[in-house]
Amino acid sequence: MWVRTLLKCRICGKLTNLRLGISGPPQQEVKFECLGCRTTIGGTLYIDYENIQTSFKTINCTEVKGDLLSGGDYFIEYSFDRPVAKPSSQPHRLLTPYLRQFPDTEGALDLIARARWSRSISSSDWYNFHSLNNAYIQKNYATFRKIASIYFTEKYPMKKRIDLQQTFYQLHYLFLAPYIPIEKNHDLVLQMTNYIYQKNEPFVSQMQVFVDHLFAMGYLHGWQKDTTAILDDFADNRDWLAPFVVHSLTSRASKDYWLPTEHYPKAKRLYTDMFEVLGRLLMAIVGLNNIEYRGSYNSMPSNVPKSIKNWEDFSELSNALKFKYCQENPFWVSVYNNTFDHKLRNGINHNKAYFDDTSQIISYFPDIQGKKCYQISYYDFMVHTIKTFWALFDLHQLVKVLLVRYYLSSSDRYQEEIA
Ligand SMILES: [Zn+2]
User: Is 13 left (phi over 0), alpha (psi -120 to 50) or beta?
Assistant: First the structure.
């Protein structure tokens, strides 16, 4: 449902015809720039879903009577969960954003199924999600099992017994499935598993040496901790991220879209954190490439700088350089899915980025000299952020495959770990 209202700016007196989408949380901030004087105006939207009523409390503007169809100096659309038209001095288009953006039938059904699934997870479940992650990472397995049994013994009983690792990763699917392209992820996990379990020598024995090293030096648990922290962070922010997941799944053309931007600072932090973790996980990729192309995880590619003599030295390189030397196997490059953009990360992270609220364009300067300016729309940045999360979720599964590879090589290893 959409409603319209005419708002008079307190500073310049110009009229904005606001078209409001009624969806999302019962109380929302609706904030935008008056196109007349570029001051921030808007208000709070209250939605009473039970009585199908809405009210709007204005801030720095007042509601006035007038021609709602074409009256006003400026026309603003606002929606919590749909891309809308850019702010304009032209009257609103007749079709509402919902009708303009409606995806194909199959896509629509997928979105409905995702929404239903995410609604089936309650706040208490999300508390449990955090507790489960904490308990597992801190190796508090008794607590972990107790909470996990709510899901895999009571709610969704499993036909066969699943072990601790499987339970941990299954829970992540159970909670986060509505937010990731699940089929693509399953395909990738299968390909990763086939890759790690190749039977040819010396691959098998060198892989053993590698996973033993990764386990002994704490890398596997460290990576698990890193990726799980991101999943936790994503879960905390899921409500406002969910609409962007929908945009990323439907991948519409972006240049005309305009979206609420109040969470930009949080998005920036999440993106930067994910970038760091993806950078650390390149240690796994370079080790796998070294085994595949040179027979040992320590045999570095010939083009790396002279100071990089072995696998451990590789960690000294910047993330951008690490990625440069991890291009040998196109499969791993495809897992990173074009999301490892160090120019964007450097620009966004070093605060040499400017955000224009009205155009929703982020201008960023990746070089230290700050000369060359790049631009990305907020919409494209958020789609990029969601796709980065998907890459991270895929690599979260790679860590699992490596860990299982370690455990399976000797029957007492797993027993030792969970004792
Ligand atoms: Zn104004």
Answer: left
Nearest to 259 by CA among 285, 240, 235, 284: 240
Q: How far is the CA of 48 from the centre of ligand 1 (A)?
A: 30
Residue 416 pLDDT exceeds 60: no
Whether residues 209 and 67 fall in one domain: no
Q: How many Cβ atoms sit within 10 Å of the Cβ of residue 46?
A: 13
d(C-alpha 168, C-alpha 144), whole Å: 9
3-state DSSP of 228-288: HHHHHHHHHCHHHHHHHHHHHHHCCCCCCCECCCCCHHHHHHHHHHHHHHHHHHHHHHHHH
In tens, the pLDDT along 325-377 reads 999 999 999 999 888 888 888 888 776 788 887 788 888 888 877 788 889 98
Spatial contact of 98 and 243, defined as CB atoms under 8 Å apart: no
> Any idea of the CA torsion for 285, 291, 296, 297, to the nearest 10 degrees?
10
* Contact criterion met (CB below 8 Å) for 151 and 171: yes
Distance (angstroms) between ligand 1 centre and the Cα of 29 equals 18
**Over the stretch 60-119, which tens digit does the pLDDT of each residue have?**
999 999 998 889 999 999 988 777 888 999 999 877 776 666 556 677 777 778 878 888
Give distance in angstroms: CA of 325 to centre of ligand 1.
Answer: 52
pLDDT digits (tens, 9 = 90+) for 31-67: 999 999 999 999 999 998 888 888 999 999 999 999 9
Which residue range forms the structural domain that includes residue 197? 180-418
Q: Establish if 237 belongs to a structural domain.
A: yes
Does residue 418 have a pLDDT over 60?
no
Helix (H/G/I), strand (E/B), else coil: 48 = strand
pLDDT at 412 over 70: no
Q: What is the 214 CA–ligand 1 centroid distance (Å)?
A: 59
Domain count, the chain: 2
Q: What integer is the mean pLDDT of 225-238?
A: 96
Between the CA of 84 and the centroid of ligand 1 the distance, in Å, is 21
64 CA to centre of ligand 1 in angstroms: 14
Closest CA to 103 of 93, 90, 113, 116: 113
Flag whether 169 is in a domain.
no
- What pTM value is reported for the model? 0.82
How far, in Å, is the centroid of ligand 1 from the Cα of 9? 5
Residues 383 and 272 in one domain: yes
